[in-house]
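Structure in, sequence out. Go:
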């Protein structure tokens, strides 16, 4: 049985001292999950680092996470293809805490 595709609004914080997924930012795409990455915002490196960090935090394969909006912005929307049923709850937990 295939899962559904889930859009995940993200606020990327490049150049962080350590990678971290968690927290909330109210951005242009609605409540967004904060993803801090070590990579600088150069040549898409922060976007790629955020994509991989998001996949790891959500327990999905990096290949199933693609950028939908925001290639040149800190406010992005990633699409998680064939997401497990519990993914939306995992995103909410990471974004809004317990």
């Amino acid at each position: 049985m295939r899962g559904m595709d889930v859009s995940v609004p993200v606020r990327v914080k490049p150049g962080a001292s350590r990678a971290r997924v968690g927290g909330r930012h109210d951005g242009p795409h609605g409540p967004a999950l904060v993803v801090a990455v070590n990579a600088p915002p150069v040549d898409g490196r922060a976007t790629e680092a955020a994509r991989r960090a998001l996949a790891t935090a959500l327990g999905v394969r990096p290949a199933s996470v693609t950028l939908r909006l925001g290639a040149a912005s800190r406010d992005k929307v990633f699409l998680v293809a064939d997401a497990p049923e519990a993914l939306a709850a995992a995103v909410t937990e990471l974004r809004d805490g317990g």
